[in-house]
UniProtKB/TrEMBL annotation:
<dbReference type="GO" id="GO:0055129">
    <property type="term" value="P:L-proline biosynthetic process"/>
</dbReference>
<protein>
    <recommendedName>
        <fullName>Pyrroline-5-carboxylate reductase</fullName>
        <ecNumber>1.5.1.2</ecNumber>
    </recommendedName>
</protein>
<keyword id="KW-0963">Cytoplasm</keyword>
<dbReference type="Pfam" id="PF14748">
    <property type="entry name" value="P5CR_dimer"/>
</dbReference>
<comment type="similarity">
    <text>Belongs to the pyrroline-5-carboxylate reductase family.</text>
</comment>
<dbReference type="Pfam" id="PF03807">
    <property type="entry name" value="F420_oxidored"/>
</dbReference>
<feature type="binding site">
    <location>
        <position position="54"/>
    </location>
    <ligand>
        <name>NADPH</name>
    </ligand>
</feature>
<feature type="domain" description="Pyrroline-5-carboxylate reductase catalytic N-terminal">
    <location>
        <begin position="5"/>
        <end position="94"/>
    </location>
</feature>
<dbReference type="InterPro" id="IPR000304">
    <property type="entry name" value="Pyrroline-COOH_reductase"/>
</dbReference>
<dbReference type="InterPro" id="IPR036291">
    <property type="entry name" value="NAD(P)-bd_dom_sf"/>
</dbReference>
<comment type="function">
    <text>Catalyzes the reduction of 1-pyrroline-5-carboxylate (PCA) to L-proline.</text>
</comment>
<feature type="domain" description="Pyrroline-5-carboxylate reductase dimerisation">
    <location>
        <begin position="157"/>
        <end position="261"/>
    </location>
</feature>
<dbReference type="InterPro" id="IPR028939">
    <property type="entry name" value="P5C_Rdtase_cat_N"/>
</dbReference>
<dbReference type="GO" id="GO:0004735">
    <property type="term" value="F:pyrroline-5-carboxylate reductase activity"/>
</dbReference>
<dbReference type="InterPro" id="IPR008927">
    <property type="entry name" value="6-PGluconate_DH-like_C_sf"/>
</dbReference>
<comment type="pathway">
    <text>Amino-acid biosynthesis; L-proline biosynthesis; L-proline from L-glutamate 5-semialdehyde: step 1/1.</text>
</comment>
<dbReference type="GO" id="GO:0005737">
    <property type="term" value="C:cytoplasm"/>
</dbReference>
Amino acid sequence: MDRAVAVIGAGTIGGAIIRGLLRAGGGYRVVATARSSSTVERLRGLGVEATTDNVEAVREADLVILTVKPYVVADVLREVAAELEGKPLVSLAAAVSTGYIASRAPKAKVIRGMTNINVEVNEGFTTLSAGPNCDQAARSAAEELFRRLGTVEWVDERYMDALTALSGSAPAFIAEVIDALALGGIAAGLPRDLAYRATLMAMMGTSRNLLETGRPPHQVRDMVLTPAGTTIRGVMVLQGNGLKRTLMEAVLEATRRAKEMRDEMGLS
Ligand SMILES: NC(=O)C1=CN([C@@H]2O[C@H](COP(=O)(O)OP(=O)(O)OC[C@H]3O[C@@H](n4cnc5c(N)ncnc54)[C@H](O)[C@@H]3O)[C@@H](O)[C@H]2O)C=CC1
Ligand SMILES: O=C(O)[C@@H]1CCC=N1
């Protein structure tokens, strides 16, 4: 029988998870919730059950995924805590710790996760941290679901804020880099579509190359650099304008923001 999964607050990331599960085909009966009836209708359009009733959705579920904004987590947990008894609860909310969730839903088997938008094409990178009251069955249930959506790793929770930046936010950073490279191609006279295609294929091919060969990035860079050639001229501009420092600071700043959000929500 299909496992029933409730996606509570199915907006951008919850919707992407649902689309990824549907693409992966079978195995799950999805019940999604949203606050507005227009979003509920949109979710039904995907072919899943949808409702504004969080309590009912959790009651029917074997596994619950929480995808509301961080500042909504407390309200939702207050509403559904009693129905979570004995159930795996995976919270994907940035900055919210397993300790906090377990204090608000003490009967749930709490897991904190971070994933990214690429779950919608089954290429997500999901990291999971188990809370103190989480057993092996709950871990396996969560891992099995997210494996359908890409790669899964269990990590120490102290890495979660940095992974929120480097997994959750990274598609936005990378999309900006892709956009900039393609615009450079357009500036050099390429037709727009060709510029984006060339950039995307170079991005994907380089990732696959690094993953498959296990080479460090600087080694690939050196393989491409011809003395007095074209690439070194481009690299010179990147270095001169602080590309690496800029990207490093972006990751650090996004990581710092998670702590700031906890302070704002009074969760520190
Ligand atoms: N967008 C992304 O790429 C990622 C987001 N996240 C985390 O996922 C969470 C959601 O982010 P998004 O999907 O971007 O936000 P979103 O705003 O698109 O989705 C949240 C959904 O929750 C619904 N909602 C609000 N209050 C509710 C309630 N009381 N009961 C049920 N549903 C309710 C909203 O109607 C909305 O559809 C955040 O905590 C964020 O940190 C994590 C990884 C990636
Ligand atoms: O921007 C955010 O706060 C969320 C968390 C990771 C991706 N989106």
